[in-house]
Every structure is written in structure tokens, then in C-alpha cells.
Amino acid sequence: MGTSFGRGGATTFQQDLQNADCIVIQGSNMAECHPVGFQWVMEAHERGATVIHVDPRFTRTSAVCDLHVPLRAGSDIAFLGGIINHILTNERYFREYVVEYTNAATIVGEDFRDTEDLDGVFSGFDAEKGAYSPASWAYEGMQVASAAGQREHDGHASGERTGSGGVELEGAEPPQDRSLQHPRCVLQLLRRHYRRYTPEFVEETCGVSRDLFLRVAEALCESSGPERTGAFVYAVGWTQHTVGVQYIRTAAIIQALLGNIGRPGGGIMALRGHASIQGSTDIPTLYNLLPGYVPMPHTEHYGDYHEYVRRNSPRTGFWGHMEEYFVSLMKAYYGGAATAENQWCFDHLPRIDGDHSVYVFTKGMLDGTVKGLLVLGENPSVGSANGRFNRLAIAKLDWLVVRDLVEIETASFWYRSPEIETGELRTEDIATEVFLMPAAAHTEKSGSFTNTQRLLQWHHAAVEPPGDCRSELWFMYHLGRIIREKLRGSTDPRDRAILDLAWDYPVEGTIAEPSADAVLREISGRGPDGEQLGSYTELKKDGSTTCGCWIYCGSYADGVNQTARRTPHDRQSYVAPEWGWAWPANRRILYNRASATPGGEPWSERRRYVWWDAAQGRWTGEDVPDFVATRPPGYTPPEGATAEDALRGTEPFIMQADGKAWIYVPDGLKDGPFPTHYEPAESPFTSTLHPAHPTNPARQVIRHRLNPIANGRHPALSREVFPYVVTSYRLTEHHTAGGMSRFVDYLAELQPAFFCEVSPALAAERGLEHGGWATIVSARAVIEARVLVTERMRPLRVQGRTTHTVGLPYHWGTNGPSAGDSANDLYHLVLDPNVHIQEVKAATCDIRPGRRPRGPALLALLDDYRVRAGIRRAAR
Amino acid sequence: MIAGPPTIVSHLVDTRSHDATGAPRSMGFFTDTSICIGCKACEVACKEWNHVPQDGLDWTGESYDNTGCIGANSWRHVAFIEQARPVRQDDGAHGDLRWLMASDVCKHCAKAGCLDVCPTGALMRTEFGTVVVQSDVCNGCGYCVSACPFGVIDRREEDGRVWKCTLCYDRLRGDMEPACAQACPTKSIQFGPVDELRRIADDRVRTLHRRGVSEARLYGADRDDGVGGFGAFFLLLDDPEVYGLPPTPVVPTRDLGRMWGAAAAAAVSMVAGVVVAALRSRA
Amino acid sequence: MSREMSMVPAAKPRTYYGHPVLKPPVWSPEVGVYLFTGGLAGGSAVLAATARAQGNDVLARRALGTALAGVAMSPALLIKDLGVPRRFHHMLRVVKVTSPMNLGTWILSGVGAALGIAAACDVLGIMPRVRRVAETGAAVLGPVLSTYTAVLLSDTAVPAWHGAQLELPFVFAASSAATAGAAATILTPQSHARPACAVALGGVVAEIAAAEAMKRRLGDAGDPYHGGESGRFGRVATALGALGAGALVLGRRRRPLAVAGAAAVLAASFCERWSIFRAGTASASDPRYTVDLQRGRLTA
Q1: Does A792 touch chain B (CB under 8 A)?
Q2: Best residue in B241, B253, B268, B279 to probe C by mutation, most C CBs within 10 Å?
């Protein structure tokens, strides 16, 4: 989303779905996982919208949709690419929108080669490194920042960084062909790229009949244009693939072609995986980001603050003010200690020197380079892919701190876990010192959540936490305080990074809880006189402003906690601007300039949202305009204009360097400017599209003996031994890795046991009994589950043969009133290269009736499978 | 403005339990199962508010329903029915799978069998027209359990008394809606004055019929049915028995006159018989 | 009514995973026994008054005794069945005409009081007028005591009971007479026992006939009475009843035979009561009896 539009977040809000004429829910089981937000889909349906659910399973979402399209897990790009092909072949795109607001007319440099030319890879692929150099993808006449020395991370901006846009385009403005005829204009390249994604190809690859596919394509095409809009809704069914980012890109292309972005009832509703994941990327727990998607500095640019700023501030777009955001952040971190002379304490910041994402550092734990780990509100021993990898890794740590409400599996691995049961681990041999610290629940602490639609909502603590339970805020603050006390008086320059911190938060109450309110004030930012700032446009780079996260600037505007506002629905419009506060600047639909014509009028009365009021000389409408408020539609940037002033009055995507939605992404993604259908890393099928490159060539593989992959050396053998697709998902009744639901009676009793879902045909083929037990085996693990035989699982016909899918809800672990085996143990660590997300939506497995073996016999069974599949026998 | 007033969200129903003069109104539920998404928020909200105990950790394999039925420890029960059958859709298209989901609850019958037979007066009709057990009076005789045509009310083993949905009587007295209605995200459970709900329900069935959903029908909205209409009635998409509900429930008390008549006749016969037998066998 | 149309019933019964629609009765075995002891009390009260009217004081006192025994055992049984036994007195908070159990509690209390007074007067040989009033009172309430339990069972949703609402009071009344007569027969010297024998004989024959008529009229809905525990006890009841009747007839002059016959009649009445009691659970536990009955697929 970041590379396509400029910001990495949902472009719209759930309530707006009620306005859509067509909603496609794909890679999401929205009714199941976002039931409260789903009411707006129901509302749309009541108003006559066509609601389509594309999913391998018939779920609680499908039950209330107009149409359910069963498709093979892992084949979504083929499906969506087919829709793109349909749109282009039948000339169904919203032409004016496409020409004006997207880069469809932009001409790409002549060095660019498509996957159609190179049989499955784009130009610039280094087979040895398994990585692309994007130099040849550049627009004509432009230089894209190439490999070493010019960018922060591995030669080009990472996916998360473009979580808030801003990829630099150096050089003059690229040429365009507004007639869209030039063979190297983006639209023609797009047409060529998807030419073979015919309805027949979709049927053969996805298992979706051409008629059904065409129904979906037509429903979308009909909900396009000035009068009508359609929306996409997706969640981790799309992101949890080795081509996850590209899945989303395909939808972004469709929505750009159909002219749906920035318009009511349109957009892409990215549904996040839990209540504040958006918040945890905004104020990040990610290794490579600082708050507001400012990149972490890299060791290659050691010592040079000015270089860091220069390379991360593109000339155009709002990222041109990166330095203002950064300086204000450092002032928040270091207060008076950060000055212009010491470059705002830039040297205090830790530097990254590569990929430090979770599975990489978990490997570091196995390798002995990572000694300690803090786990806060997560249960990786159940939730991470390849659970064994995780559990054996934490058994190697010197120390482990787990903060949670209950004793989750990550904390109890040392005496209860699958590896203890098999004997791979013995309690007396584990040297890890485990600290289990009780955490406060959300009702016992104040603070904000940032939900899937970028909405910050304040929560007031209702009660004090019981006993020793404490909030994260308390923990971090006092940990910092104690460390600073221990370091007091130190002369080691290294300790300045901690001692120079401005760590003076007020504390309240008997337990000395830091004031969350004070923290939000700091995040929102203050001006030179200490007054709360209203917008990130007020941030300065001279050190006079502080701001903990520039995209949250304004959340405490006017000294009022904007995130705590609760104006009821019957006292404001459906946009509800006075409920909570959304970033950026309380805009609810992003890029909403695109809801008006280039001339500034709404595209239609029916789809009015934001428009230019000539009399007042400003943009106005139902929402905060996502545009410079006083910039007229006819504005042309003067010579030498920078940042947002360099964008025209007709360029709605203000975080992008050229102000346009990127159908073609010249830079910013590790695996290509256009999405291409690749098979999952483990698949019963090979690719008919690009037999030479069946899987994502740029995928990230964690190479370790604990991470064997089927389909690797002996794909034919692997397919015989692991013939079925296995996919994992959620149930409404449980929450992620189960820490907050398996231990609660009222939830545990609703879904008390781990079960698998199989079709009657698969049950017959493998002798599975409804209500009985089944053992599911992958190259990594052997697990057992109760059997639910149901018609909702469909055999599909793909590449001329029938394929079956085994469905697994992933919530279970060894602890709690409702215990069971962990589904994610089955999966491998092959990741999307942009965002390092694991592929838990499609892998291969076998299934057999009966319970699994216990103890060492389980490992024997696993070895047997591996040997038969031609995978190198794993050492114990 | 793009968005007109919401259509399914029942913001337009005044859910306050008292009218302008402060007098209580007859309140109830309209459970529209056509928009239920099976999330079970109703089950959990009810248990949380009313401190209903956990009802057993048994995986049933009956689709996604591990609750089984309404009982002393489950006052809302979401049923799941998977049907592989041709289903017409309004544009003539055919799906071939249907998954019915429905949140069942005590019907709060206008003529309630449980209330009629309760010997202690523990079961009472509240000022809102709902049926409630006074737990401090109930001595657990269990008569109501057999008198309910729907199998709703039941005795709690550990406790000895009977328990069932109170339509959150305590919340109603505070002009709040019941916990399940508040929690329901799609407003499948609508709460309000029963008369108003019946009007809404009639409209809803008409709308669905117009759309080609011919199987939509109301269950319990008719005041002339065997229990005088339900305070908590439903819109179903199939026969009631498919959901575990009786097709034509009747309050047992309807025949009470006949029963006492037969008893009187039998009593008289008994006396007559004894007298005659005694007279004829005089020593 | 068109809004609540039912579709043409499907050929097969449709249920929710075979789950019962109703809850099975929660009453413990004590209630089944109470049906017997209450019947004994009610019938004996009538028998006592009748004997007294005939000047048969020996029989009257014996019958009074069995009535009192019946009415003394009954509350203990009923209280034990309660979920919260210490709250038994809550039954007397109200007088509720729609609740056969509530009225029954008053009736039982009334009969108990009357019988207690009558027995005391009789044994102590005092206040004959009071005794007569008490005995008459018991005799008037007795038949109600004997038949209200039929109303109690019928006034439920249990198909096997509710469907039998017309016949059940006659079964219970006859059973009550049979029980009273049989108990009195055993306890009364032969010289004074003939009316008791007659009542026992008439009662058991009427009981069997009424039960047969009831089950026949129920048709398929009466299946619970034929199968399982209910069916077994029902068949034993009929057999013992027939044997008992025969023995009573033949035992007009032979006391041991009469006593044996009376014992068989007692057993038969108990078994019949138990059969009816257990049919309730069987009927409520199978959704067919509710669904198919209401869909008109079961004859009733």
C-alpha cells in the first residue's frame, strides 16, 4: 500500500464500506475476525451492494455474502491478475482517473524487462544473491537509487519504510503519454504483463470456473466510474504469503484502474491482525523503523547525520520534510541533550546492519549470538511459524522475560512443550533463566489503541491492576529508570545513549504508573512555548519543536486529548470525525482529493466526498481533505519548488514523489514492479506460467536444518508424500495464539478443542471419521486434531486434477483449560522479502486418521516422512 | 451526504424501557437470523453480565456449535446448520451451500407455561412483560422445566434452582438494553418495544421476500399462536425444527380447564366406585 | 398468518443434530414413589369414610391408618426432590390456581391435617363429632389428592403426559382405589375386609382398562409407554394386576390368597405409576415426539 499510494495503511475506514456498490472480501474472513466492523458490510448489503467472498473455505463471512468463490490457497495473484486482464482487454478502466491520478501514462526506461521476457524474473535479478537491483525499473530518464551507498537498506528502501511512501525519484520529471499508447507506458506494460492471465488460466490455476471468475470481474467493473465505487477488504490471508506484498499490490492496481482509491465506498480496507497492530508499526516495534516510518539509520552511513537526512528526504512530496520529523523526534527522546551541535544526538541511535526481523534474530538465538529476549504480549511458541524452531531457540537463551496475563506456552516451554514430550529438550538441561512477569489487562491501564483504520482511541483504566500486574508503560518506564540509576555517574560514552534520555514522565497512584496522558502529549508534540501542536506542518528542524511521532502530531491538539473524544453517532455524520482521532490529521479516507475531478468537482452527486470550494478558496467536504487545504486544483508548481509544493493541484497521492498512484512501482519493492503469480514455497503444483521460476525468486528463506522445505530438491517426491494444501486461519471465539482466549472459560467453552476441517471427499480418501482424530504431517512437524468433515471445504480442480485442502485454526497450545497441538508448528520459514512475513496460508501436508505418536516415536514418524520426501534427513 | 440512515442498524428504535411518563413498556427481542454472523458475542456478553457459569468444555463436532442448547448455564445459544442444497439467490444465481446461524433465547411467552405452573410464585411477569425467576424464592421443584414447550428453563445442578434469560431485567430497569443486544455487532438481536419490533419484523420479511428469499418467515410474532406470541420472537430461514425449535408450541395451561374437568369426573367416579363396591360387598 | 407459513413438511423428520426439543423432567425417583403414596392416601381416605358410614369401624380405622401413612411419607418424598429442600415452605407462599403443584400442596396439607385430626380422635377415642368432620373432609379432599397428580403431569409440555390428559386422571383414580383397597385388605381382618377387597378388585381392573385405553388413544405418540423402562414396568403392572385380580376373586374365602392378591395389586399399581413417570423422560428426550406430533405425522 505504501509503494502504491504513499502510506502503508488502509485507505479508508470500515464505516465507509456501507457506501460501496460492490465489496470483494478476499484474503480475509471479515465476519469471523472483524465481526464488529463487518456490520458495515451487512449495511452495504442491505442497501443493495454485491458482496463477494473469495476464500478457499466457506466461512461465516461466506454465509452472509451474495457469492462465495472457492479458490486454491496461494493462487490469488492469478485470480486478481485475471481481473486486471479482464479490465484492460475490455477497456473497462476509469480512463480519466487513470490518466490523471495514476502513473499509467508514465513511460518506463528502455532497460526494463518484464517476467514475460525473462521467463519469470524481471530485469536486474542476481540469481546468486536471490535479489533484484531495481536500476532497470526506473522511469525513462530517471535514476533510481541503486545498490550500495545510496540508500539506507540494501540498496533501496524497504517495504516498511515505504509504509509511509516517499521513494525518491532523482532527475527530471518522467515523460508521459496521456493517450496511453506508447509501448513502454505503464498501462501497456501492464497489459503485456497480464496478457496470459486469461479466464482459462484462472480456472486452471485457481480452480475457479471461468463463469464464476467472470461474474466477479464484471461485478467489479460495473461498480466503477463516476457514479459507482467498489471496495476491497483484505487481511492476513493475503499478507501471510511469500508474495504477500504483491497480492496487495495486485488489488491496488485493480482499484487504481477502476478509479476507487480516495473515494467513498471504494478503497482498500486493510484489516489488521489485532487491535493495535497499526499502532505497533506507527510507533514501531519493527527493527528498521523509528516512529512515523522514519528509517532506522544503517551502519553503512556511520557518523554522517547529514547524509542520513539527505538520502531519506526526497525532493517532492511531504517526505521532503523528513528532517523536521526526525529532529522533533530526537528532541522528544533526548530533550535538552539533543542540540544542533551534536546533530540532535544522532550518534546515540543504534544502527542496523542487516535484517534483524523476528525469524532472523530467532536464528541468532539458535546460533548463540542473541542471548536474551523480552516477549511482551505475544506468544511466539504458538503463533510463529515453525514452532519448534522458536522453542528450541528460546531454550538456548541466557535469559527470557515474558510479560503476559497468563502463563503462555512461550513461558512454560522449559517444562511443557512438544519438545519436552519428544525428549528433544530436557528441563534439567535448559539453562535459560525465565522471568514470567504478570501484565495488566487493557481495562487496568490507560493508553491508546490504533486500529485497522488508523484510528487512535483512548482507553481509560477502569480499575487498578491486581497484585503485581503492571502495564507495559510501567514496565518500560521503571526498567529505564532503574537502568539509568545503575548507570549514574558512568563515564563510558556508550552509556550516554541511555543517560541523555529525557526520562521524566510523571507517575501516578500507589503503583507509580506513568501518566499515559503525558506520553501522548509528548507523542503529539509541543511547540517552542510548550503548547500542544496541531499538525505536523508545524514541526521545525531547528530544535524548537518536539514530537514523538510526526504522523500522530495533532492527536493532542489544543491541549485536548483528541483520541478520547466520544461524540455519539447520532450527533455527527457517518464519517464521525469527532470520535477518536485518525492519522494523518484526522483524515478518515486517505487520498480523498481523488474523490473529485481534476477540476475539483465531485465525480458525481452520488459519490460526493471532498471538493474544491472556489468561494472560500479551500478544499471542503465530509472529511479533512488529504491535500494542502488552500491549494487550488489548477496549481502548477513553480520552478525549484520542493516537498508538497512540488506537487500539482491534480496530484492526490501527496506522499508519492510524483503525486500519483503507482500502478507500476519503479522502486521500493524487493520482488518486482508488477505482481506476478508464483506458487507458494510448498505447493502441490508447479507454475504453468513460468516453469523456470515457479516460486518468488526474491523470497527470503531462513536456511537452517530446523527449517527443511518440501518441494526443494525433490519436488515430485515431496508432492507425493505431502499431497495436500494446508492452510491456517482464525475462529471468532479465539484470539491469535490463544493467550487471551484459551484461558478464559467463556471463550474456551465456545471452541474447546483444536480441530481440522476437511471435505467429505478428502475424508473418504484418507479414511478420516467425523468427530474422530487425525494426524497432520508436514516437513517440520507432526500434530493431531479432531476431525470436522464439512462441505464447506471444497475439493478444487487445478491443472487437470483434484486438489484437497486441510484447514486448521491456529489458536491452540499446550496450556490452559482448552489445550491442543499448535497448527503453526507445521509451517516453514520462507518469508515475503519486503516485510519478512511468514507464509502460513499455504504449505503442503499429509493427513491420516488417528492420533499422533508420543515421545521419540513422533520424531521417528517425522523422519520417515522426510526421508520419503527426499528432504535431507534432519539431525536430531 | 452519502450515507443515509442505516437500514439494518436499529438506531431508529427507541430502546428505552420506560416511556415519556416513566411508565414501563412491553419490551422484547426480534432476533433476525438472516443477518446473524455466528460470532457468539451474545453468548459471552450474557454470561459476563449475569455471571452464568461455564457450561462444559465439550467439542461436539456439530458444526461450530459447542454449546448444544439453551440451559441453566447457557441463556443464549447460537445454532449452526450447514445445508448443502440448491439456494436461489435474487439474481437467479445458484449457490449450493447454505450456513444458517441463529441465536436462540428464552421466548418470554405471552402465555408462559413455566410461569403458570410455578408453585412458589418464583416465576413472575415483570412490568416489562418479561418472565423472570426470582432466585431467592425458587426452591427448585423443577415443574417449570417440564412445562416449557421450548426446553429453555432448567435446573442448575450445583445450585438447585432454575435459571434462564431474564431479558436483563436489571439493565431494563436502568433503561439500558440487554447485554446480548448491545453486544450483537450486526444487530441481528434487536431490542425494543415488542409492538414496534413486530412492525419492523413484518417489513423485514416483506423485504426478504421481494429479494427472493422466500423461506424467510417469522416465528413467534403472532399473538394468536399457542403461547400468545413471544416477547422474544424470530425471523427464521427454514422450519423451526431445523433450529431445534417446536413447530407449533402450545402453552400446556391452555388445556387446564379440560384437565381439571377430567380430574373431577375421575374423582367423582372414584368415589362412586368405592361406594358401590363397598355397598355390594357388605359382609 | 401467512407470515408464519410452514412449508410442506419434509418426508423425513428434521431435527437439530437429533437434539431433544424439550428438557427431560428433573424430578427424582422420589416423585414417582409419591405418585403411589399420594394415591394410597387419597383412596384410603375415601375408603375410611365409606367404611365408617357402613359402621365398619375396624376397616375404617385401618383405612385411616393407611391414609395417614401415605400422607406422612408424601411430604418427605417431595421435599427430598426439591433443588433447595429447605425452601419447601415456599410452596405455601401463594395460592395459585394455574399451578397444579401449588394447589396440590394445599390439598396435601389439608388432607394431612384432616387425617391427622381424625386419626388422633379415633385412637384416643375422643371428640367423635370432630373426628367425623375431619374424616368427611379428608374423604372430600381425598379424591382430589388422588387425581390432581394427573393434572400435574398433564399440565406439562411432555407429549406422553400432555397427550394423555383425558385418561390419566381415571388411571390415577382407579390406581388410587386399588392401592387403598389392597393395603386395607392386607391389614384388616378378613371378617371386615370384604369391602376393601372389592375396592381393590374394582380398582385394579379399572386401572388396567383405563391405562390400556389411554395408550391406545395416544397411538404412535404413546410409544414411550411401550418401550424401554416404561414399557417394562407397564407390562409388569398389567401382569401383576391381572394376577392380583384373579387372586382376589379366588381368595374371597381364602385369606392367604386374598392377601397375596392384594400384594400383587399394590405392586401392580406401583409399577403402573412408575411406568407413567418414566415415560415422561423418554417422551421428552426424543425430538420426534414433539416435532412429528406437531407436524401431524404422529397420530395422537
Answers
A1: yes
A2: B241
Q: Determine the Cα–Cα distance for residues A510 and A491; give it in Å rounded to an integer.
A: 34
| Cis preceding-peptide flag for A584 (omega within 30 of 0) | yes
Q: How is residue A302 written as a grid cell?
A: 556511520
Residues B282 and B202 grouped into a single domain: no
Torsion from C-alpha of A399, A400, A406, A410, nearest 10 degrees: -120
B183 and B260 share one domain: no
A733 interaction partners in chain B (CB closer than 8 Å):
40
CB B19 within 8 A of CB B202: no
Query: Residues B50, B62: one domain?
Result: yes
Number of domains composing chain B: 2
The residue among A13, A39, A228, A609 with the most chain B CBs within 10 A of its CB, best to mutate, is A39
> Could you tell me the CA-to-CA distances from B110 to A36, A297, B88, B175, B262 in Å, in that order?
33, 71, 36, 22, 26
Q: State how far residue C190 is from chain B, nearest Cα, in angstroms.
A: 10
Evaluate whether residue B142 is within a structural domain: no
Question: Starting from the edge strand earliest in sequence, which strands make up the sheet with A67-69, in order?
Answer: A67-69, A50-54, A22-26, A230-234, A268-270
Please indicate if any CB of chain B lies within 8 Å of the CB of A773.
Answer: no
Kindly report the three-state secondary structure assignment for every residue of A256-270.
Answer: HHCCCCCCCCCCEEE
Label residue B172 exposed, middle or buried (CB < 10 Å: 0-12, 13-18, 19+): buried
pLDDT-derived band of residue A171, with 50, 70 and 90 as boundaries?
A: low
Same domain, B282 and B201: no
Q: What is the dihedral of CA B78, B84, B85, B88, to 10 degrees?
A: 70
**Measured on CA atoms in the order C246, C252, C253, C256, is the torsion positive or negative?**
positive
* Range C29-294: architecture per CATH: Up-down Bundle (1.20)
* Cβ-contact C289, C298 below 8 angstroms: yes
Q: Name the nearest CA neighbour of A756 among A771, A738, A778, A734.
A: A771
Contact state of B7 with A43 under an 8 Å Cβ cutoff: yes
> Which whole number is the average pLDDT over A599-603?
96
Q: What is the dihedral of CA A774, A779, A782, A784, to 10 degrees?
A: -30
| pLDDT tens, position by position, C141-164 | 999 999 999 999 999 999 999 999
Integer-rounded Cα Rg, in Å, for chain C is 21
Q: At which residue does the C-alpha cell 452472509 appear? A: A64
Closest-CA residue of B relative to A747 is B44
Q: Is the pLDDT confidence value at B85 over 80?
A: no
3-state class (DSSP) for residue A581: strand
Specify the pTM: 0.93
Q: Is residue B128 part of a domain?
A: no
DSSP strand pairing (A843-849 vs A830-831): unpaired
Cα–Cα distance list, C262 to C36, C70, C170, C182, C241 (Å):
15, 17, 20, 4, 9
Do B28 and B53 sit in the same domain of this protein?
yes
Per-residue cell: A160:
516498511
- DSSP assignment string, A362-398: HHHHHHTS--EEEEES--HHHHSSSHHHHHHHHTT-S
ipTM attached to this prediction = 0.93
Measured distance CA(A110)–CA(A604) in Å, rounded: 39
CATH at residue B70: 3.30.70.20
Tens of pLDDT, residues C77-135? 999 999 999 999 999 999 999 999 999 999 999 999 999 999 999 889 889 999 999 99
Cα–Cα distance, A276 to A273 (Å, whole number): 8
User: Could you tell me if B36 and B99 lie in one domain?
Assistant: yes
Cα A79 from Cα A67, distance rounded (Å): 16
Domain that holds residue B257: 253-283
Which segment of C36-40, C121-125, C185-189, C197-201 scores lowest on mean pLDDT? C121-125
Integer Rg of chain B from CA: 22
